[in-house]
Amino acid sequence: MNRGTDDPAERIRVAAAATAKRATPPDERQLRARRGRIRTRRRVQAAALTVFVLAATTAGFAALRAVFRGSNQPAFESDAPPVVDVAPLVALWPEHDATVLASAQSRVDAGDQDALWRTDPRAVTERFGEEVLGWADPHVELDSDEWVNDDGIRRIRLGLCPSTGCPEGRNATEFVLLAKLGDGGPNGVWSVVAAEGDLMSDLDFGVPPSITVHEGRRIDAFTSERGPSSLAEGTEVATGTVAWGACEPAVSSDVHRIWFRYVHFVVSLEPDPGCEGTPSPPDEKASAGAVFSVWPAETATSFLDRLTGSNRGALYPLPLEGVSITATGFKPGTAAELPAWLDQDPASLPACRDGDLEISRPSSSEEAIPPAPYGIGILAVVEPGNDFPCRLDFVLSVEILDGNGSAVALEGDNTYRVAGVLPSYIPDTHDMRAFWRLGDWCPPLDGGPYSARLLVDGQVTSTTQLDVLADTCTQTGQEWVNGQHHRPPEGRGTPVITPLG
Amino acid sequence: MPTVRTRWCVIVPTKEGSLDPELLAFLENNYARLVAGLALMSGSVPLAEDAAQEAMARAWERMDRGQHFESVTAWITVVSTNLVRSGLRRRLAEHRALARLAAGGADRGGSMTMPEEAVDVVRAIQSLPRRQREALVLHYWLEMTVVEIAAALRVSEGTVKTALSRGRHHVAQSLTEVDEVIP
User: Fold this and answer.
1) Which of A8-12, A225-229, A267-271 has the highest mean pLDDT?
2) Is the whole model's pTM more than 0.95, yes or no?
3) Which terminus of chain B has fewer Cβ atoms in its 10 Å neighbourhood, N or C?
């Protein structure tokens, strides 16, 4: 192929120009539907914020509010699920308590030389590397990002490397997110609110810093795959939770494997049994805490020792993923069960057999299927037949039959490969779907009724009458549901079934 | 995969609550360009369209509430870039993981939705760290200045310049290797 130029900028422009031709603008109906969802989401978020503001007036948050003036807004503007508890930001390190943080700020304000390092984000990051990661003489080397969110809290993200320097490929880099939780001015102290290791790239616990996390909550942490240096499928990592209360920190840790780029665990906050005062964490009140994941898994104990100040461990986690949270006790109805097979190698699962799956009859409807503004959608849904996972790998295809039961000739290949595991390892994925678009065709109505027949690996499974075809086809052509008339390309057209990804 | 046909796709504004003229202008003049840029970042045209349309809908919703944008195009560009970065990468990785599990299965992660002329460039861009990837596309395709990119990505201008320089170097290197393999 003639690529024309060696200039990478020009190559990007050429590639983008070719890609731009594939872009299909939305119709107004699609945009209107999206706008409606956004409106609904915004109303729900506003309601959740109202609930928080009411909650924040109770005694439990009174002290925190006095310290974090004006910080009772959501930390991040997000599209998180609607049931969101919002609390003031808490730190991962060095303080976990608003009063202690206020004390540190007072020392800085009084000019205490031993406390001035807290106003330097690089110094805070380096000390975090020493005291929590256990790195000797780490240093900040990478570029920094600094910004202020809508909540007015100043943040900075710094790259931290071991003393040997940031290696090529940056496998040994930790990114540290700091925030000025109290005084946002130049003398405000910085606190670590999250840490992100390079190997578990973009690991996402689904919980932004400061969010309230209840005991029993299921965490589905996702780590994207970024090149060969990312942790491989099947890698064991330690995950867990810390909560700082009135007594010893409540700590839990377990080992799980990465499958389908997810690590699953359940928040567990075991109270300190030796505590004679208020249990740690309190059953109902919020306390500062963190969810974390570390690799190698055997470094979890020494990491937790350092994070909780118990002693200095000998094994260094690399990377650490940690997010500060507001930890609370068990909330009825929120505890999750974690199936044991989520840690099992999916390749070791049995192949699906009869009874393991339920495959729906093909359903059809008229609808706008981008890029075309109309068409007939044919859908088949594959669902698990029980709670035991199995591997499926088969090909679905569709045939169209006329009123005599004869197959109508179709253009192209409409096979659809369905492969994976059901029940799924991936959260909120309960089934697999095959979707086709039938278009460009308006058959003579006296040749019907027409039917869609679903085949699995070439074997007929079920047939459904295509009533929708009679609804959309007039004697003269096809009609879109919104009253827009469209004719097939030539005459009554030739049926095309397109599998949609 | 059959060729996608677009001849019937039209924007039909309605009288009541219709698209703002600024959004219509964006659709006409900048939408395809933005989708192409997002597709280079994400490796998938459908995902890019999803992000661009979501950003447009958010802009529309804000306009309904009386918000004024200095530049609708700039706002949609930044928001859709964030959407590609945060939410859509997850879907791509899930697709890749599923494709890997199905031995010999095709990668449904979206790369095959890219035009042939773009595949090598997309692969080269996809191998870059996120910031370099975004800076390259925003600068060389969407023609944003270094200052504008710095503001959009919330980094310093020096960081943008470094990302552009490194990204350009790596893409050139990757494309040279590809060209040597495929004469």
Assistant:
1) A8-12
2) no
3) C
- How far off is chain B from A262, nearest CA to CA, in Å? 9
What pLDDT does residue A90 have? 65
Nearest CA in chain A to B63: A35
Place of tokens 């945009």: A31
Average pLDDT over residues A157-186: 76
Expressed in percent and rounded to 5, the helix, strand and coil fractions of chain A are: 20, 30, 50
Q: Is the pLDDT of residue A446 over 50?
A: yes
Q: pLDDT higher for A1 or A157?
A: A157
Nearest-Cα distance to chain A for B72, in Å, is: 16
Residues of chain B neighbouring A14 (CB-CB closer than 8 A): 117, 121
Closest CA to A172 of A144, A211, A198: A198
- Rounded CA-CA distance A238/A261 in Å is 15
* Backbone conformation region of residue B110, classed left if phi is above 0, alpha if psi is from -120 to 50, else beta: left
Say if residues A193 and A91 touch (Cβ distance below 8 Å). yes
Among A11, A44, A428, most B C-beta atoms within 10 A, so best to mutate, is A11
Question: Cβ of A225 and B93 within 8 Å?
Answer: yes
Instruction: Indicate whether this complex's ipTM tops 0.85.
Output: no
CA A41 to CA A45: how far, in whole Å? 6
Write the CA distances from A47 to A51, A52, A79, B65, integer angstroms.
6, 9, 14, 17
